[in-house]
Amino acid sequence: MIRLQHSGNANGTIIATYTSYVDHRAEDPVFASTNEGRTFTRIATLAPGATSKNLCCTSLFELPRQIGALPAGTLLWAGAKNANARPMSLPVWRSEDHGHSWTLLSTAYTSPNQGGVWEPSFSVDASGQLICYFSDESDPAHSQLLARTVSTDGVHWGPKQQVVALPDHSARPGMAVVHRLPSGQYFMTYELCSTTGPDCPVHYRASADGSDWGNPATPGAEVVGPNGRIPEHTPKFTVTPDGRILLASLAYDNPDGSPAPGNGAVLLVNGSAGAGSWSVIPAPVSAPENNRKVGPCTNYSPALLPVGNNGNQVLEITTRDEAGICRAYYGTGASSQ
Questions:
Q1: Which residue, 23, 24, 44, 249, shows the most beta carbons closer than 10 Å to its own?
Q2: Distance CA 33, CA 124 (A)
Q3: CB of 134 within 8 A of CB of 109?
Q4: Of 233, 231, 222, 217, nearest to 260 (Cα)?
Q5: Could you tell me the CA-to-CA distances from 244 to 247, 275, 305, 308 in Å, in that order?
Q6: Residues 39, 45, 48, 49: is their CA dihedral positive or negative?
Q7: CB 190 within 8 A of CB 175
Q8: Which top-level group of life is the source organism from (predicted)?
Q9: What are residue 6's phi and psi, to 5 degrees?
Q10: How far, in whole angstroms, is CA 111 from its chain's centroid?
């Protein structure tokens, strides 16, 4: 979910999407809201030729500046796509009419083997380079690592670069999200899972230029809430106009790994670029995962966006499993205590 900020008369429009499966074909319906997320209208359907179950982990991004021949305000969409047989790839589609029509632009990365590539997301660094971050299972030295590829035009992409690649083979950093804070600093969150345990605590890094994230072989700092409780799995965050970071995750756990009070029903908030303490506020949409069966539906990768007067509210879209049917819900709540 994004808000248009570089699209002229369309500025302020909220664009949202999710992945669905219709007649054995994966597709992303595209929705727009012009009233701060009170109602949404379907404006398009992105169907990138993937069969059912072969499209995952899609993302939206609005270019804040011109990249090659792509003007500011161009929308980019990317997802993790399987052919009927691997290798996997990360196709990139574009829209120059605020999400109403889409065309294939490029492929940001294709796996060199049968290893998966997942969860693409975009950022533009301080030098104007377009970066696609993704989770990479194709390196035999790592169960998974966080990688990126860089483009100056959105069409041609450079070689894969490591962003978080830990020496412990069992470590699985993934699901990177990057936003630029009002201070100009860049902030990244990601989950840090392991093949040896069920937990995936949320970690973060900061960068002055959106390119240098420090030593890839270090895990980064962990997000810790009150009483040592931690957000885990599929983190997403947004930034309010005054610089507060609002973080959503699939689960919220006690230090011993058991579900904490508010599991699936809270957001974490930090006003110091990740440093210091994180507080807890109610999530606009409650989606508890109390049975600890982490899967691709309930509260998986919730989307957040500041709305209202100077971001005093937050809009959330998340999903719930209802008798085996995954449904998306949205709601708005206060962005502070």
A1: 249
A2: 25
A3: yes
A4: 231
A5: 10, 11, 12, 15
A6: positive
A7: yes
A8: Bacteria
A9: -135, 35
A10: 20
Buried b (16+ CB within 10 A) or exposed e, 243-274: bbbbbbbbbbbeeeeebbebbbbbbbbbbebb
Tokens of 251: 């689960």
Spacing of C-alpha 175 from chain mean position: 6
CA distances from 123 to 143, 177, 273 (A): 25, 9, 18
- Find out whether 305 and 14 touch, Cβ atoms under 8 Å: yes
Q: Which residue has the tokens 């072989």?
A: 217
- The neighbour count for residue 327, using CB atoms within 10 Å, is 9
* Torsion angle defined by CA atoms of residues 59, 60, 64 and 69, in that order, rounded to the nearest 10 degrees: 100
Yes or no: say if 326 and 33 are a contact pair by the CB < 8 Å rule: no
Q: In sequence order, which residues have a C-beta less than 8 Å from that of residue 310 and are 6 or more positions away?
A: 240, 241, 242
From CA 139, how far away is CA 109, in angstroms rounded?
14
